[in-house]
Structure formats: C-alpha cells, structure tokens
C-alpha cells in the first residue's frame, strides 16, 4: 500500500544509466575521446537526474551485458549510450534485446582543430539508429556539447520521454463506475489500452466508492476541511457547511490512488453522484489534479492517461476540457469546474477560483475559475479508435474570454484555423475531451507518439 505522500512514478525524476562505449583497440583521437568523456561526466550531476554509470565501459557483448546487469540492479528508468570515439556497431542488437524501452543515443562533437577526424561519434550514433529503426526499436537522439543549452534541453527531454515509455508498461489505471451514459468513446477497453501503451486497467463500482466515502472518519474529514479553508478559496453560492462532503469525495478518490496502488484514475460522476452523495466531486478532482495526480472525469480513461503522460514528461498539470465552440481563430475550452488552480487566474482576481454549485444541477461543489490569459498552451489528446492509439497536439495561447462562463472557462487562440482540425478529429473518432497543458510541447508529444508507434493526426 502506498503512503499518504504522493508516490506515483510520474512525480519521481527518472534514474538514468549512462553507458560509455569503448574500443578494443585505439582509433581516432583517443585523447579527445577521454576529454569529452570527462566533460560529460562533469555535467551529468547537474541534470537533476540520479545518474548511474557501470563500473566498466562496454567494448564487446560480454562487457555490455555486465554493464546492463548493473543498470538493472540499480533499477534505472532510462539508458543513455555514448561513443565519444566510434565503437562496435554489433552491440546495438544486443542492447535492443536487453532493454525493450527506447534507448538514448548521445553523439558528441568533433574536435574543431586539426585536419583529422577525432571521434566519428555522430557516425557511430547514426549507425546504431539505422539498426534500431530496422529492428523496430524506439530511440531518441541527442547531439552536441554537454555545456550547450540546446544539448542539455534535448538530453532532458529524451530522458523524460524514454522513462515515460518504460513506466507506461507498469501504470495502473483505475476506472470507477465506467464511463458516463452515452460517452462510449471514453470507455476503457483493457486489452487495447494494454496493447497500445502497456498500462493495465482496473475497474471499481460506484458502490465500492460509496463505501470508502461513508467509511472515512470524522477526524480525517475535519482535518481536510481545515486544509481547504487554509487555501483561501472564496464561496460563490456555497458555504462552509458544504465542505465536509466535498472533503469526503476528495479523500475517497485520493484513497483509491493510495490503497489500490493507482497511477491514474477516472470516475463516473454523473448522473448518480450528486443524487447519492448530494454533491459533485469536481472540487476534489481539481485539487487532486493540482497536486500532480493524473485524474479524469466522466469515466474518460485515456483522458486520465493524457494527464499521467504530461506529468511523467515533466510538463506540469493537465486540464481536461470540452471543446465547446470555435471560430476561424479560437477554441472555447470549457468544462464543469475541475481545472487545477495553478492554471487559473489568481484568487481574488476577476476569474479567480471560487467554490460554487454546478452550473446545471445546482449542487456543490465545483471549482469555478477562468484559465489565465496570455499563457502558451498545448491542446492535445491520446485516444483509441479502430483498435489502435492516435495522438493530436497543437500549440496556441490563452486570451481573455469574450464572455464569462460558469464553471471552467478558457479561450485559446490558435495560429491555424482550428475548424478543419476539429473536423479531422471527429472523423478520427476522438472523444470530446481535449487535454490542455501549459507551454508549447506539440513536437515533444509527437516524439513520444513516434516512440509508442502511435499515429499522429
């Protein structure tokens, strides 16, 4: 059982195994290779990742297997391979067999002085890349000097990407109550999910959820109510009397993450929950999302995985939204009130968060807020159709909405006309939720899709 602290893998920085490929006999500029290795080793501790280097270089099949055995014993999440002087290309198939996750091939620069090639590092990485591609084995490329900002950024992205693909194979996705009525495209086919991502799906009934809600002790509920009050969110049309049940729903969802060892969770909140419990769980969903939990609504299984993926990639919080309307320049992003506070306008400002009743069924508790303006965003989605996964991702920026909308409101300005994109997505079977993350990450997400052999729309 997990502890109350956030222990999900997507919130732990990856541990990286770094394997230097050596040579059986001297060749190229060995001194330049040693110099480059030393500079790489000096920079690696500054990455923030836990770094492990095996006790010997890999120069042949036997030494590579010993190096990988040490990496396995250290439980690394990603493998980086460097050949600062070109090594043996016959090692690529062995490493592909030993490490099914994407490999990171880092090629270092040539010595820019003198008339002799110094390392052939990029040629070596290219050789490995061609072999891995024809084996159907995913990889990421890093090329450049360890002190160059572009190299450092590419290295960090490659590590997060490779670790995410590997960690997906151990993700547990919980689905409470199935999908909302009529939302068939959001259902979780456990076998397609597993084939497409490696994740497993576990299902729970709303009766099981209700048992947890009702079984919570008064002390735990009171402690969480005090925590909510300390956050300083004002009421719109609710009162403090509504907070105990809101805390129960939050604590019950949180307990499923911990007691069921879940990495991601989605819940069917309508139509039953406001009738059974007298409240909606959206305020609790917003709190969990802002804590870095991968949580979806309306039984949206792939939506929860969308949140887990951006958390694992180090891209921050995820907001799951309806695509409410569009014109030739903008998309209105709206949902019932479950956006993470860190993406919203500040408390006390126009559009800042308030605890409110649902816009339609006038019961508490939703998190009414406007996504803050002038923020770069990526609108994206992973989903299943025809037994396979697809991805879409486009970049834009938020602007001030043209009008206030109850619950969660946002207006995204897109550089290209979104209307044709929307039509393409409908014909590709995309469910009606899109995911929103802060920052421009479309190219990064498409690299992840490539590593997972996912079609890009």
Main sheet: strands, sense, barrel: 6 strands, antiparallel, barrel
Computed structural class? alpha/beta
Helical element count? 14
- Spatial strand arrangement across the major sheet: 10-11-16-15-14-17
Q: Into how many domains do the coordinates divide?
A: 2
Mean of all residue-level pLDDT scores: 95
* Top CATH class of the largest domain: Alpha Beta
The percentage of residues in β strands lies in 15-25%
Tell me the CATH superfamily of the largest domain.
Answer: L-fucose Isomerase, Chain A, domain 2
Poorly predicted parts: 1-10
Can you characterise this structure?
The protein is an alpha/beta fold and 457 residues long. Helix 1 (30-43) links the parallel strand 1 (15-20) and strand 2 (50-52). The model is unreliable at 1-10 (pLDDT under 50). The protein has helices at residues 30-43, 61-73, 91-98, 121-135, 149-168, 190-197, 206-215, 218-231, 243-259, 272-277, 282-290, 301-312, 418-427, 442-451; strands at residues 15-20, 50-52, 78-82, 103-107, 139-143, 172-176, 200-204, 264-267, 294-297, 318-326, 330-335, 354-357, 364-370, 376-385, 388-399, 408-413, 433-438, 455-456. A six-stranded antiparallel barrel has the order 10-11-16-15-14-17, surrounded by four helices. Strands 2-1-3-4-5 form a five-stranded parallel β-sheet, sandwiched between helices. It starts with 14 loop residues before the first strand and ends with a strand. Helix 5 (149-168) crosses helix 14 (442-451). The chain folds into two domains: 9-168, 3-Layer(aba) Sandwich (Rossmann fold), CATH 3.40.50.10940; 172-456, L-fucose Isomerase, Chain A, domain 2 (3-Layer(aba) Sandwich).
């Amino acid at each position: 059982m997990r502890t109350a602290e956030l222990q999900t893998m997507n919130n732990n920085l990856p541990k990286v195994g770094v394997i230097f490929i050596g040579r059986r006999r001297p060749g190229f500029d060995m001194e330049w290779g040693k110099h480059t290795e030393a500079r790489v080793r000096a920079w690696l501790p500054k990455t923030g990742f836990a770094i492990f280097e095996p006790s010997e270089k890999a120069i042949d099949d036997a030494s590579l297997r010993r190096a990988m055995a040490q990496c396995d014993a250290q439980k690394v999440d990603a493998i980086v391979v460097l050949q600062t002087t070109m090594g043996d290309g016959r090692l690529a198939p062995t490493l592909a067999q030993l490490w099914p996750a994407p490999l990171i091939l880092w090629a270092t620069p040539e010595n820019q002085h003198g008339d002799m090639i110094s390392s052939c590092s990029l040629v070596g990485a290219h050789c490995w890349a061609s072999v891995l591609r024809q084996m159907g084995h995913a990889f990421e490329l890093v090329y450049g000097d360890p002190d160059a900002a572009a190299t450092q950024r590419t290295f960090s992205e490659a590590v997060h990407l490779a670790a995410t693909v590997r960690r997906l194979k151990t993700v547990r996705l919980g689905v409470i109550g199935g999908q909302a009525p009529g939302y068939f495209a959001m259902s979780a086919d456990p076998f397609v999910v597993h084939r497409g991502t490696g994740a497993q799906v576990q299902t729970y009934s709303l009766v099981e959820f209700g048992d947890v809600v009702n079984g919570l002790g008064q002390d735990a509920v009171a402690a969480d109510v005090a925590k909510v009050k300390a956050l300083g969110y004002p009421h719109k049309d609710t009162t403090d009397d509504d907070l105990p049940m809101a805390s129960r729903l939050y604590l019950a969802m949180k307990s499923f993450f911990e007691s069921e060892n879940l990495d991601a969770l989605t819940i069917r909140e309508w139509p039953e929950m406001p009738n059974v419990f007298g409240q909606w769980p959206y305020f609790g969903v917003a709190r969990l999302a802002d804590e870095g939990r991968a949580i979806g609504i309306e039984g949206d299984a792939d939506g929860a995985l969308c949140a887990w993926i951006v958390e694992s990639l180090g891209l921050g919080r995820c907001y799951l939204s309806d695509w409410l309307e569009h014109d030739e320049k903008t998309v209105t992003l709206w949902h019932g009130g479950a956006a993470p506070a860190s993406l919203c306008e500040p408390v006390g400002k126009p559009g800042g968060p308030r605890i409110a009743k649902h816009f339609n069924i006038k019961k508490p508790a939703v998190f009414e807020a406007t996504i803050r303006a002038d923020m770069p965003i990526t609108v994206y989605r992973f989903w299943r159709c025809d037994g396979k996964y697809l991805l879409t991702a486009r970049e834009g920026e938020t602007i001030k909405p043209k009008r206030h909308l109850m619950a969660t409101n946002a207006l995204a300005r897109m550089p290209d006309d979104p209307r044709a994109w929307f039509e393409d997505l409908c014909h590709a079977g995309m469910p009606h939720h899109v995911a929103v993350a802060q920052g421009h990450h479309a190219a990064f997400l498409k690299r992840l899709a490539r590593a997972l052999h996912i079609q890009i729309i």
